[in-house]
Amino acid sequence: MKVFVLTGAGISAESGLGTFRDPGGLWRRFDPMRLATPEAFADEPEEVHAFYNLRRQGVREAAPNAAHAALARLEAGLAASGGRLFLCTQNVDDLHERAGSRAVIHMHGELMRARCTACGAGRPWAEDLSVDTACPACGRRGGMRPDVVWFGEVPRHLEAIAAALDESDLFVAIGTSGAVYPAAGFVARAREAGIPTHEINLAPSDTAGLFTEATYGPATQAVPACVD
Ligand code: BJW
């Protein structure tokens, strides 16, 4: 069996990482257009760096939870029976990997990586960034940015994602509001392909009506209950 799982901020919420659109979420407190766009980085790089340095610290201090661990078990179990888990996350944290998932597609990039806007070189990055940070590859200062996908930028690995969706037997979305495209459109594509669709969330998402099945509850309980 081939299972496509799309995860969002809700799967990491119980690890202490804030979501974006829930009450108290990041985009309820901060304007995403001033922090998560290439224009914001060009205009106010120090403000953008300060925001992501704090987020990076939060990720360093967080630990994977029971939902991340259940997906790692699912990947191993499916592989053992000749199937496959395609794990696509919108999250920029590394909690899936730290829970033991081996193949993770980060469609919105990774916070623990940095990329140089001058030479394009990307590399793992666990420390703070600033406008004074020099690119280890080309030496230019001021161009290092978090290797994440901001609004108006093209998400990563879209061809591989589309191919995996089309050959899956089941689509599952976990802890995502269905507010951000193109990820929010995956469930419609799965429906068109005739694949069963399952939402796991605290509450019905914006695209809840497109799912054929739903489990509502905290991810740390709902995901292990569905997997085991
Ligand atoms: C729990 C829980 C618990 C809580 N247990 N559950 C079509 C229509 C309109 C607009 C557009 C459109 N197509 C494109 C756009 C523009 C834009 C967009 O979608 N805007 C919308 C706001 C309308 N999209 C883009 O710009 C994207 N690029 C693009 O489209 O390029 C063009 C292109 C596409 C394809 C081919 C060619 C060209 C890029 C989007 C980049 C998003 N970036 C961010 C920031 C990343 C860096 C960072 O982290 O700072 O990504 S924004 C933010 O939202 C982040 C997330 O990955 C993303 C999704 O959020 P998510 O994960 O769903 O979190 P929440 O907070 O929204 O929801 C949490 C959920 O968890 C809730 O449902 C809770 O109930 C639940 N939950 N606790 C279970 N314990």
TrEMBL record:
Residues reported in the UniProt entry to bind Zn(2+): C116, C119, C135, C138
Catalytic-site annotation from UniProt: H108
One GO CC term, this protein: cytoplasm
Cofactor binding notes: Binds 1 zinc ion per subunit.
Pfam families, sorted: SIR2
Keywords: Cytoplasm, Metal-binding, NAD, Transferase, Zinc
Keyword Hydrolase: no
Family in the record: Belongs to the sirtuin family. Class III subfamily.
Function, in words: NAD-dependent lysine deacetylase and desuccinylase that specifically removes acetyl and succinyl groups on target proteins. Modulates the activities of several proteins which are inactive in their acylated form.
Record protein name field: NAD-dependent protein deacylase
Gene: cobB
